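Q: Please design a sequence for this.
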């Protein structure tokens, strides 16, 4: 399970100057809080509230006052479909030397033991460095809501909704393995990466093309192939298309917020036109004529086979046409144009992150 461990005061609701939200008049949600939490709940995350409440239960901070505010806050959240899987509260002061006050992990130790939490995909969001240290201790990525200060957090955001967008972007990753009698292919990718790639297909020019696909789409991509190259390059190239397309499809999830469509791009004397629609329906139109049998170690006839397989794995419409003189340039232009079209199609619309770009209600 993927979990977002969320601080309360200063992260979810406004923290007043006296640092105690002990009356309904002080209860105020931070801008975008509910919208952000809905987005990550829809992506399959569990919400766990973890909060320090200094001196809770004392005469200066009565339990009755806390419960009135907490009940109202939870009721308002529930009315928007936002429910916490667990709520953990430390009532102690900093000098009490308890084992539960953040950054200590006593509040969540049992929860982590009893639940299959995927810490690699879980996050802590808070407004203090103690939240960051708490997250690093339990092994999560950390997001600090702050501005203009030094922090050891993995990410910094201006508010909760922006922190939730960071999570949505980083969540768009996938790994897949395709094993047949002819090939053994593993693919790892992150859609919102920086275009880093490592390809080991056994076909040098094909590695170069996959590097182009990663670099110009912004996708971080790792591809390892052990194929029957002693027989032919066909199985490795076609199965790579299936595996990479499938991994991108998995990383897209339910496709909410994406651009869906993309198109682009030339290279020198060659002009490639590529249009992509992440429609959920596989189709590939490929219009190209090559004068050489091979470019490097890659048979030119396999370029079309790659894109047909890629469309099948991605379950997308892909239309490709290219013209030019140099076959190297033509093929590279196709891969670069596909990358640019794909980048447009997978990019999240930050203004509509929960909108599915389809009148059908499904992609």
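A: Design:
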């Amino acid at each position: 399970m993927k979990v977002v461990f969320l601080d309360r005061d200063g992260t979810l609701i406004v923290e007043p100057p006296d640092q105690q939200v002990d009356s309904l008049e002080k209860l105020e949600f931070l801008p975008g809080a509910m919208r952000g939490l809905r987005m990550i709940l829809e992506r399959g995350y569990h919400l766990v509230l973890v909060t320090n409440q200094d001196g809770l239960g004392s005469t200066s901070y009565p339990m009755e006052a806390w419960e009135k505010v907490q009940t109202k806050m939870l009721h308002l959240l529930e009315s928007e479909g936002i429910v916490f899987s667990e709520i953990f509260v430390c009532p102690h002061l900093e000098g009490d030397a308890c084992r539960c006050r953040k950054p200590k992990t006593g509040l969540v130790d049992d929860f982590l033991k009893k639940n299959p939490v995927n810490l690699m995909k879980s996050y802590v969001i808070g407004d203090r460095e103690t939240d960051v240290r708490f997250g690093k201790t339990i092994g999560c990525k950390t997001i600090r809501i702050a501005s203009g200060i030094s922090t050891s957090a993995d990410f910094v955001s201006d508010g909760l909704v922006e922190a939730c967008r960071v999570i949505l972007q980083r969540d768009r990753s996938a790994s897949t393995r395709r094993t047949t009698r002819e090939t053994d292919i593993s693919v790892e990718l992150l859609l919102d990466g920086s275009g880093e790639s490592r390809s080991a297909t056994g076909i040098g020019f094909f590695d170069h093309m996959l590097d182009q696909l990663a670099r110009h789409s912004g996708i971080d991509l790792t591809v390892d192939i052990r194929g029957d190259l002693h027989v032919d390059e066909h199985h490795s190239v076609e199965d790579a298309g299936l595996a990479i397309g499938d991994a991108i499809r998995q990383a897209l999830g339910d496709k909410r917020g994406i651009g869906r469509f993309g198109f682009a791009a030339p290279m020198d004397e060659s002009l490639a036109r590529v249009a992509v629609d992440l429609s959920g329906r596989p189709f590939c139109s490929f219009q190209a004529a090559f004068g050489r049998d091979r470019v490097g170690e890659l048979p030119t006839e396999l370029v079309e086979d790659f894109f047909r397989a890629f469309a099948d794995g991605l379950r997308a419409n892909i239309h490709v046409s290219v013209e030019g003189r140099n076959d190297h340039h033509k093929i590279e232009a196709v891969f670069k144009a596909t990358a640019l079209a794909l980048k447009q199609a997978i990019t999240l619309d930050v203004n509509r992150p929960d909108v599915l770009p389809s009148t059908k209600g499904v992609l």
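Q: Thanks. Anything notable?
A: DSSP finds nine helices and 17 strands in the chain. The mean pLDDT is 92.
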